[in-house]
Amino acid sequence: MDYIIEIATTDFITTKSAVQGGADRIELCAALTEGGTTASYGTIKKCREAFSVQLFPIIRTRSGDFLYTDEEFEIMMNDVKLCKELGCDGVVIGLLNKNGAIDIKRTAKLIESAYPLEVTFHRAFDRCKDPFEAMEQLIEIGCQRILTSGQQPAASQGIDLITQLIRAADETIIIMPGSGVRKENIKELAEKTGAKEFHSSLRGKHKTKMEFIHPSFADSAESYTNPAIDPGEVKALRKALYS
């Protein structure tokens, strides 16, 4: 069995670490602690130039809900075009209507604009009203993949729904478990759900290399710790999956 491990990264350094650890695909974000927003043009460009691994930037203008204004949608369309121009392999999107249904009209426009890039519909899916109807709609408009935790905070909690979705999809769309996927549970997720792709952030922190620490901010994690991914944790995730 060949599995795919996607790692969510938050900048160039964490992307480099994930690639060193053997990630098959990168979901590139900014502000990952807020659920992820679109990385800067410069970050996407540098990551594309530096790494040959599949690169999927998230297209999300802000944190919060997934109900977007016309102006925000226009920004998303422009960001998708930029990702195409930069040679990315795919994009990650997610839009909902007020009633909890997928915003099919605008999602379809983003997918059309992204072509031939692959499109993943992110965990906005976990906030939709009817996951099975939503899945069928996403299949119909040409979405390649759904990232989901089974409409629960963590994939391990939503394992039953993930299993049902994978069976119902019958390989017409990829259902990729994500949220709380770790070396301790990835094997169980694979065996119980039948999933072949997995998403994890493996978020960690490194202490600053700054020599001068201002005494007023000595206890400030925001000031003196940086986002980090341990390449060894990525390797351990894969090892656990194939054990």
Core attributes:
10 strands; four-stranded parallel beta sheet; globular; 9 helices; TIM Barrel; alpha/beta; 243 residues
Task: Walk me through this protein's architecture.
The protein has a single domain, classed as Copper homeostasis (CutC) domain (TIM Barrel). The mean pLDDT is 97. The chain is an alpha/beta fold. The strands form 3 sheets. The chain has a 4-stranded parallel beta sheet with strand order 3-2-1-8, with helices on one face. A 4-stranded parallel beta sheet has the order 4-5-6-7, covered by helices on one side. The protein has helices spanning 12-20, 41-50, 70-85, 104-114, 131-140, 159-169, 186-193, 221-224, 231-242, and strands spanning 4-9, 25-28, 54-57, 90-93, 118-121, 145-148, 174-177, 197-200, 204-207, 225-228. 37% of the residues lie in helices and 17% in strands. Helix 4 links the parallel strand 4 and strand 5 (118-121). The protein contains 9 helices and 10 strands.
